[in-house]
TrEMBL record, chain A:
Entry keyword annotation includes Transmembrane helix: yes
Sequence similarity: Belongs to the binding-protein-dependent transport system permease family.
Protein name per the record: ABC transporter permease
Residue spans crossing the bilayer: 7-33, 71-93, 105-126, 168-188, 209-229, 260-282
CDD domains xrefs: TM_PBP2
InterPro entries in the cross-refs: ABC_transporter_permease, MetI-like, MetI-like_sf
Protein origin, superkingdom: Bacteria
Domain ABC transmembrane type-1: 67-283
Membrane topology: Multi-pass membrane protein
UniProt entry keywords in alphabetical sequence: Cell membrane, Membrane, Transmembrane, Transmembrane helix, Transport
Localisation per UniProt entry: Cell membrane
Gene Ontology biological process: transmembrane transport
Automatic annotation (TrEMBL), chain B:
Family annotation (Gene3D superfamilies): Periplasmic binding protein-like II
InterPro entries: Bact_solute-bd_prot1, SBP
Name of this chain's protein: ABC transporter substrate-binding protein
Keyword annotations: Signal
Leader sequence segment: 1-23
Length: 292, 439
């Protein structure tokens, strides 16, 4: 190695300093504030220990419900996006499909849309009497299927998760397609000669070789799911009532109420959950990579 | 050769970038046109219902621009989000130059506009505003905002034709009201137009019926503010929450009230799809402007909300007002805009151009109420509404809207709605170290 070509460490100093100042310090400060009674109405800030965390986890607090909702949202959307993304990617790399790129583009296009726009469009499409979906169902004579998508307590969360899956699966599909195209065709040829069926090939070749891609997708989906805000805010604003509230809508609400310490407490809880989950996801996946 | 082309291209790009950055850093200030007009753009942030749908404020801003060259850039946010949004913006220093928010600003639970805006006490127009309304934009006798709408009163507007056809008379008690709703429903109409997505409309029955609270105890509002009594000490409140739930379950609000938006109320009333809705008298003018074939001012009559057997009309001297951001670079220009709006001819223009508005809080401008309306208003017993008199009510208005929504979907019982209302009040009071709560 030619040492003279390497940059000395202090070249990164300025960037590291900025990162430390603008990202690391505020993060730590945020966590520190969660142990205080910081709010909008008084200039004093007092140390209150774990009181805020107690308020979140104690008894039957509404915050627990938000945390539960967030986890449910994350698990379901991660699974659905991965399944649909994978299925679409497999389909759109088959040779018998024509205009593959066109199809890929159509399925990817929701990703380009802003969450707010998608949310508002779906809110009007899902209106129980004037919305497109129910009108469409009724015109097919399927009146029984026309539901109160965004106001019925049993329907609203599945609806929100479906819309989010619709928006996010295109991106997952594109990533998986890139992974699929990098798998060398020889494996499939060899497997075909041995008489392997489609599913055998999928199970023994595609899936193991896609593992690193799937790990990345899971990390992306999980971090997105836990931090979700815009989609829920624009579709239901956490309603009806607080039925679809998640951690970040609660954080927003606490900040606007002026209860800044509670906002940072909830953010800190989210931060620790994300950190812990990511650690385990990455740890559990990294040993299982197949050697090619 | 190729290298040279590359160099030229990159140099031009770099030069372009530098020019762009320098231009981006420049302010719009200072570049006065040849005719002495200023080249300034004021940002004006408001919620949807803060600006009349007729666009009259935008028209006035256009006139102002023609006269002074100062442009007004309107940034409008949804009602349900404005209160949260503007608080976040104010605290992060990103608020617009002129801010429109709901008044009063003097309650402990209000948006504390006195901390964020320029004091306007010395402005020449201040003394021309009605005293009770001026109090809503003042804190400790210092004036901070300019406001225009006259006192608000929410009635049930009802379709007289439908009532006549079904032989119904105006209900004065809750049980009569229910009977009326049932008959209207059986006749195939939606009895009441309700819309919960905006977050505020469904809350009106709870706090516009302050007359009931004052009936129980004339000093009720003070006692609540001193924490000598809590909301569960007011039977009328829980009664009304239960009655709302009963009517919702009975289908008197129709099927879609949880998906409806208040913007569609005009259409619902004009097409006679719905027979009643809670609105101000001026709402009829608004309907008539958009649906000229439906003579709303003749066909729609009003009665006092009979929730909890209430007979007293709630008067709300507060409305919305405009404030100048303390951190704005253009506060002088904004003051100039307020002066412009306060001119008598512009006040008149505003009243005429805003169909839903019947009167201004500027006594020099005569109201639009007909003789009949005025006689009706004079005949009513009046009481101040709760949200302008009791702390920590208005600040949780939108949250209460969500609680009611949750009750309608079955996630909360009326008792739980009352409890969350109480708890939120206590939480807010303690956060603000209110002496009634924190000893």
């Amino acid at each position: 190695m030619n040492k003279r070509k390497l940059y000395p460490w202090y070249f990164a100093g300025a960037a590291a300093f900025l990162f430390f100042l603008l990202c690391f310090v505020p993060g730590i400060l945020g966590i520190a504030y969660s142990f205080t009674d910081w709010n909008n109405f008084s200039k004093e800030i007092n140390f209150v220990g774990l009181a805020n965390y107690k308020a979140v986890f104690q008894g039957n607090s509404e915050y627990l419900k938000y945390i539960g909702n967030t986890i449910l949202f994350t698990v379901v959307t991660t699974i659905m996006k991965t399944l649909f993304g994978l299925a679409l990617a497999l389909l759109l790399t088959q040779n018998f499909i024509r205009f593959k790129n066109f199809h890929r583009m159509i399925i990817f296009s929701p990703q380009v849309m802003s969450y707010l726009v998608a949310g508002l469009v779906f809110r009007s499409m899902l209106h129980p009497t004037t919305g497109f979906l129910n009108n469409f169902l009724r015109s097919l004579g399927l009146n029984g299927l026309a539901k109160n998508w965004l106001t019925d307590l049993t329907m609203v969360f599945p609806t929100v998760m479906t819309v989010d899956t619709w928006k996010g699966m295109g991106y997952i599909m594109v990533v998986v397609i890139a992974g699929l195209l990098s798998v060398s065709p020889e494996y499939y040829e060899a497997a075909s000669m041995d008489g392997a069926s489609f599913f055998q090939k999928f199970w023994s070749i595609t899936l193991p070789l896609l593992k690193p891609v799937l790990v990345n997708i899971t990390v992306l989906n999980v971090t997105y799911g836990l931090r979700v805000f815009d989609m829920i805010y624009s579709l239901t604003n956490g309603g009806p009532g607080n039925a679809t509230g998640v951690i970040n809508t609660a954080v927003y609400k606490e900040f606007s109420k002026g209860n800044l310490a509670m906002g940072t407490t909830l953010s800190s809880v989210l931060f620790f959950v994300v950190l812990a989950l990511l650690y385990f996801i990455i740890k559990s996946m990294e040993h299982k990579e197949v050697e090619v | 050769m190729k290298k040279k082309v590359k160099q030229i291209v990159s140099l031009t790009l770099a030069a372009g970038l530098a020019v762009g950055m320098i231009a981006g850093c420049g302010t719009k200030e200072g570049s006065s046109g040849a005719n002495g007009k200023k080249n300034v753009t004021l940002t004006f942030g408001s919620h949807q219902s803060g600006l009349p749908t007729s666009g009259i404020v935008q028209d006035l801003a256009k006139d102002f621009e023609d006269e002074t060259g100062i442009q007004i850039d309107f940034q409008i946010s949804p009602d349900a989000q404005w209160r949260d949004l503007i608080k976040v913006k104010l605290d992060s220093g990103e608020a617009p130059d002129i801010i429109c928010v709901d008044t009063p600003i003097g309650l402990a639970s209000s948006l504390h506009m006195d901390q964020y805006s320029v004091e306007l006490t010395e402005q020449p127009w201040v003394n021309r505003i009605e005293k009770t309304t001026l109090a809503a934009v003042s804190v400790k006798d210092k004036v901070y905002g300019i406001t225009f709408p006259g006192a608000k009163m929410y009635f049930y507007l009802y379709n007289k034709d439908i009532f006549d056809k079904l032989g119904l008379s105006v209900p004065t008690t809750y049980s009569e009201f229910k009977t009326v709703c049932q008959k209207i429903k059986e006749a195939g109409y939606t009895p009441i137009y309700e819309a919960t997505t905006n977050g505020w409309h469904q809350v009106l029955p709870l706090f516009e019926t302050g007359g009931l609270w004052l009936n129980q105890d004339p000093n009720m509002y003070d006692k609540l503010n001193d924490n000598k009594i809590d909301l569960d000490g007011i039977p009328a409140l829980l009664t009304i929450i239960k009655q709302l739930d009963e009517c919702a379950k009975a289908g008197y609000f129709g099927d879609d009230y949880l998906s409806n938006a208040w913007e569609n109320a005009k259409e619902a009333m004009a097409t006679e799809r719905c027979a009643m809705t809670i609105a101000e008298l001026g709402f009829r003018g608004q309907i008539e402007k958009e649906y000229p074939d439906f003579k709303a001012t003749e066909k729609l009559r009003a009665f006092v909300m009979p929730w909890g057997d209430n007979h007293v009309i709630g008067v709300n001297p507060a409305s919305n007002a405009y404030f100048i951001n303390k951190d704005s670079k253009y506060s002088e220009e904004a003051k100039q805009f307020f002066d412009f709006l306060a001119r008598p001819e512009n006040l008149k223009k505003r009243l005429i151009g805003q169909p839903e508005l019947s009167a201004l809080c500027w006594p020099e401008i005569t109201s639009k109420y007909t003789k009949e309306d005025q006689a009706f208003l004079d005949s009513l017993k009046k009481a101040n509404v709760v949200q302008t008199s009791v702390n920590y009510i208005d600040s949780q208005w939108m949250d209460v809207g969500k609680d009611l929504e949750a009750m309608y979907t079955g996630a909360l019982t009326p008792e739980e709605v009352l409890k969350t209302l109480k708890d939120r009040r206590t939480e807010q009071a303690k956060l603000q170290k209110d002496p009634g709560w924190v000893k």
